[in-house]
Design goal:
With about 725 residues, the protein is an alpha/beta fold. Helices cover about 35% and strands about 25% of the residues. The longest helix has 21 residues. It starts with a strand and ends in a 6-residue tail after the last strand. Bound molecules: adenosine-5'-diphosphate and zinc ion (ZN) (2 copies).
């Protein structure tokens, strides 16, 4: 037999399949040690075959299997092929996605616990006769032991004394053995809150279960009870002996939320997310691989769980940007999930109150099945939304960060012993400039996206076409010199609030306050138990939380992401504000939302204030169509970086000229094609250049393939090459 092996070296030059002479026990999907050059390294067996093109005397012999079991299933091997072909990934990077790093590093080992049990020669009566009458503990121990039962060694020692156990061991009446102990992720103990589904929830469950194929989009307002729908679908699937994967954004994977799933499904659930310790992650992965669990819940990377016989795959909050991996290996979770769903002949279910434009477009085109949950599960009204013009505040002499309206609402919220959440939009950082008197924001003349301020050369740059502009000192619209480009930090807001509300508990939730293990849980628990209380936070507070006493949500700086230099900015802003607004008034008390903005006339606020997703969608998809942006075109960026600038430039030129030849054949398909220095020209000593193109859909697949081929064929030393599709960050 010949084994096809991928070597575990992250280098494009050796990223191909090598043939080795297999051993009798070489199994498909296993990790093996292999001779490679003068070294012995590790590899993955991704195929077995009978013949090879390599001459027999040149074939090297494969080494031993590293683990007792294959680490990859046939499905994952096929998925690797698919991802390499469609995302232009290195094979080794895919393998590393599939196999937990804890396994590869060999630093994490199964946790073994010593047990004892009685031996074949154990004879209770004989032993009791041999023991002195006053050796009470020893007698108790012998009485206590039952044949064939296993006891944790440490616990038995605690009960009866270590020397008594040792004695029986040395006599051969007891034997030791080792057992695995599973390290389990922490979840909050909860009672299972059973509800009767509403008619619309039941309809969605029935519709999906009676049509188990294709992609289903559940478009349900915040609080419509999507989680309950997922749980009912999963319960049915596992009662049929199948398994399910539920993905949620990382931030929703709090022990509280997971507590709900454990309460309903018990030990059938495995969790995979970044908050786990190495040991926990390793053990959860093993439980999945061995088929001990039926449900995997996790963040993006849980889509690679080695689960078999999958009956449903669910992506909750499918619009969430975290589903796109933006660093190597780059992939979109939706694509991977779709592959696995098709492979397992099961439905892929996407859920959101604010579906991504791409997904809703596909639903409208009837490529996806669309299901709607238009009202909250408890029939409560959506919170009222008020948009406040911050330019008016400045003109009225209020230059602080809170509008009068928000201050009034905060005051009545805390005096009624309720809770408030204040959301600070950090997307885009300090990167755009704004006139605080008229709300003017400089945009690119050619691209209709906001310019990004670069402090290193005091310039404004367009990230789509690289045009540069002078930084502003006065507003070209109204002449005001009141120009701002600063971040509003959580710390500053908290400090200000403490001055205004000295007797109210103020909590802060951002990357700084949640970096340590369990910090997020502690913070959320504290918030849940404190009244009145104001929680100030970044994007983290926008998603998933279900606190019944939150009656007010304030959006401090709605504009921040609106003018971010990304074609998805309006979409992201609409999403974020709708999601964060959805945190208010979820139980018995009515909710209110105050949105502060310098550009209140921007169309998104009209739609946000009325919860009009479809209106927003129609406007935005139309804009994308006339400007030829995704889904009506694809944006490609080839990023070329390296420490030797001349070499980076030369490589860029070589690739640029080769693609130009393709462009000649398909000139009408290229909406845009340029090479340039990246907006951030150097990161970590590496110079960065890029080739940007926007291509119409008609011949996209063919052009894409050619572009990949061109990039594949050159391997300049010391240069990194990456291709990104529809990147959301062009810096
Ligand atoms: P979504 O994810 O759609 O925003 P959730 O799943 O968080 O909504 O549900 C919102 C709230 O409604 C939760 O507290 C949930 O327990 C409750 N809920 C869901 N379905 C029902 C139902 N059929 N009857 C009563 N309450 C429900
Ligand atoms: Zn102005
Ligand atoms: Zn431009």
């Amino acid at each position: 037999m010949i084994a096809e092996v991928i070597v575990d070296i992250a280098n494009s030059n050796v990223d191909k399949v090598f043939d080795y002479l297999a051993k009798d026990d070489t199994k498909l999907g296993s990790r093996v040690s292999i001779p490679f050059g003068k070294r012995t390294i590790e590899g993955y067996v991704i195929g077995l075959k009978t013949t090879s093109d390599v001459p027999a005397d040149k074939l090297k012999k494969i080494g031993d299997c590293i683990d007792d079991y294959p680490v990859l299933t046939q499905e994952l091997i096929d998925l690797g092929d698919f991802m390499c072909a469609t995302n232009h990934l290195r094979r080794v990077d895919c393998m590393r996605l599939f196999v937990p790093s804890q396994l590869r590093s060999q630093k994490t080992k199964p946790l073994l616990i010593n047990y004892v049990k009685t031996s074949d020669t154990f004879d209770k009566q004989a032993l009791l006769q041999d023991v002195r009458a006053n050796a009470t503990k020893q007698r108790q121990l012998i009485e206590y032991l039952e044949p064939t039962k296993e006891y944790a060694h440490a616990e038995l020692c605690k009960k009866f004394g270590a020397n008594n156990i040792s004695k029986l061991l040395s006599m051969g009446s007891l034997v030791t053995l080792q057992r695995h102990k599973l390290r389990k992720p922490y979840v909050v103990d909860k009672l299972d809150k059973r509800v009767t589904l509403t008619d619309s929830q039941q309809k969605v469950v029935d519709d999906i279960l009676s049509n188990r194929q294709g992609v289903h989009l559940i478009f349900g307002v915040t609080g419509s009870g999507k989680t309950e729908v997922y749980m009912h679908i999963i319960a049915q699937i596992i009662s049929e002996g199948k398994t399910a994967i539920l993905l949620v954004p990382e931030i929703s994977l709090t022990p509280q939320v997971m507590g709900n799933f454990k309460a309903r499904f018990g030990d059938n659930v495995a969790l995979l997310h970044s908050g786990l310790s190495d040991g926990e992650r390793f053990d959860e992965w093993q439980r999945i691989r061995e088929g001990d669990v039926k449900i995997v819940i996790g963040a993006r990377s849980a889509i690679f769980a080695p689960l078999k016989n999958i009956g449903a795959i669910i992506l909750d909050e499918e619009h969430d940007p975290s589903y796109k991996s933006e660093s190597n290996p780059r992939y979109l979770t939706h694509d991977v999930a779709k592959f696995r769903a098709e492979y397992n002949h099961c439905p892929l279910i996407l859920g959101s109150a604010t579906p991504s434009l791409e997904s809703f477009y596909k639903a409208k085109q009837q490529e996806y099945f669309l299901h709607e949950l238009p009202v909250r599960a408890n029939n409560k009204a959506m919170p009222t939304i008020q948009v406040v013009n911050m330019c008016d505040e400045v003109l009225n002499g209020n230059t602080g960060m809170f509008s009068q309206q928000l201050l009034n609402d905060l005051t009545s919220c805390v005096s009624n012993n309720n809770q408030a959440m204040l959301f600070i939009n950090r997307r885009g950082h300090s990167s755009y400039m704004i006139c605080r008197e008229c709300g003017y924001i400089p945009k690119c003349e050619d691209c209709d996206v906001s310019l990004v301020y670069h402090s290193e050369d005091n310039q404004l740059k367009c990230h789509y076409c690289n045009k540069r502009y002078k930084a502003l000192t006065n507003c070209p619209n109204c002449g005001s010199s009141y120009i701002r480009y600063g971040t509003m930090g959580t710390q500053r807001v908290v400090a200000e609030l403490r001055k205004i509300f000295p007797n109210v508990k103020i909590l802060r939730m951002d990357n700084d306050t949640t970096s340590t293990k369990n910090a997020l849980t502690t913070l959320l628990t504290e918030f849940a138990n404190t009244k009145p209380c104001i929680l100030v936070g970044t994007q983290m507070i926008a998603k998933g939380h279900d606190f019944p006493d939150v009656t007010l949500v304030g959006v401090m700086n709605a504009d921040m992401s609106l003018h971010y230099s990304d074609f998805r900015s309006p979409e992201r802003t609409f999403e974020l504000i709708t999601q964060v607004a959805g945190r208010a008034g979820r139980a018995d008390k009515a909710g209110k939302v105050v949105i502060q903005t310098y550009t209140p006339r921007h169309y998104i606020y009209r739609f946000v204030a009325n919860y009009n997703y479809e209106g927003f969608y129609n406007k935005e998809i139309n804009l994308r169509q006339v400007t030829s942006f995704p889904p009506f075109a694809k944006i490609f960026r080839i990023l070329i970086s390296g420490e030797d600038e001349d070499k980076v430039k030369t490589t860029t030129k070589v690739i640029f000229d080769k693609i130009k030849a393709i462009k000649k054949m398909f000139s009408s398909e290229f909406l845009y094609y340029e090479a340039m220095k990246s907006p951030i020209g150097r990161i970590e000593k590496k110079f960065r250049y890029q080739i940007l193109m926007r291509i119409k859909p008609t011949y996209q697949a063919k052009i894409e393939k050619d572009v990949y081929q061109i990039v594949d064929d050159i391997h300049p030393n010391g240069i990194q090459l990456f291709i990104e599709v529809n990147p959301s960050n062009l810096s």
